[in-house]
Amino acid sequence: xxxxxxxxxxxxxxxxxxxxFLPHERVDVTDDDPSPTELFVEASIRDEEEGxxxxxxTVLGAFDERTERSVEREDALAPLWGKPEELALAELLxxxxxxxxxxxxxxxxxxxVRPVKLLRRLAAVCGExxxxxxxxxxxxxxxxxxxxxxxxxxxxxAVLALSHPSSCSLYISVPFCPSRCSYCSxxxxxxxxxxxxxxxxxxxxxxxxxxxxxIIRQLALRVETIYIGGGTPTxxxxxxxxxxxxxxAQAVDISAVRxxxxxxxxxxxxxxxxxxxxxxxxxxxxxINPQTLDDRVLAAIGRRHTTAQFYDAFSLARxxxxxQINTDxxxxxxxxxxxxxxxxxxxxxxxxxxxxxxxxLSIKRASHLMIRDKGEYDAGGDTAAMIAxxxxxLVPAGYHPxxxxxxxxxxxxxxxxxxxxxxxxxxxxxxxxxxxxxxxxCGAGAVTKLKAPGGExxxxxxxxxxxxxYVGRFEEMLRRKEQAVMFYxxxxx
Length: 493
Description:
By secondary structure, the protein is α/β, with parallel strands linked by helices. It is built from 19 helices and 18 strands.
């Protein structure tokens, strides 16, 4: 499909509006005239005596519709979503595509990752009630999604209040997994393919953690949260995991950290020895992720563990103690059904973990699922029912939504939500999603996000993506960490 732009530069938002309805369609942006046989969206802004006018025409098969409207440039809230011209064109295109496909999107025109952050910005200008009305009436969000965002906002605000100008967080990447799930697009390497790199990787990672600790102390920053993710960190042996946690303990004052998470995502990697290492290393939270409690679905997505192994891992974690437990679920998995997901929910609620993260399947271009099914996989109706049931059952069970984000190509246009019992909100998740403060990243594929003190400006420092690059070019990469010092020096009084 072609996106033809005239007199405007609205590529990002309009392209994403198209992807809400055609998630795997290639969109070519141009200002050339489309041919009569092409499928296209033509968007334009023209200036007239009485002001600017936005016009949009969508041609897709037999559908050919053109609409236009005056641009309201005096709307104080419009710039918080985007330029008024962008909003006008997005509204026109969205309405046309809703008619074409005879459907509406649950989040309306919102295509960004952080709808709660948008709500917070709007509420700061006009108050919470008017901000919610704006999401519903102007951005066409479903009222249930607006209410969900509002409830999440209240929990997030309480977490954000804990962060101070000197706060930061630390993320540590262990990009190895026992096998690759069909939906995964991360840079993770299977141990079968890259396990020989692990000893050198652990050694290099420990050095980078030490260097990062030096920079944090030099900048007089306080580490609020630590998150060791992947991949699957518990793919490492107990001794290797202990080496990483010891490096953290040497680099950071663990006693001052509010939350310390280690992902034990694959139940087939969890052992008593590793759980003792995690607990004794100072971690306060672990994540054991079944994704589903249906062995048939697990096999379909390439996860080489069983439901029984998840229950065993969860039981071991409770016996070892000392940490909160989070479990991740995914709605919309291949071969899963609304009834199957309901059974999974029941099994998780019976275990009563401190938090449950309910993801919507996102079909990424680099995933085996996308390559195999060519983007034809669709379970939108079932997925919407799964997400709705999750909220309907988790709230009465004592959980509240504490963070929320969206991804591109989510099945059914749904979202990902972290649910927690009181006092068990995942702090790192909130800080990372809100971009509250600087997050230092260590390990292959990690990104350091530097946040300007007292402002919104962000700068990123990228580590090498693949473990072999990370190990092979480590000294060069380590020198990049000094960019953090130079960044903060620019803001020193």
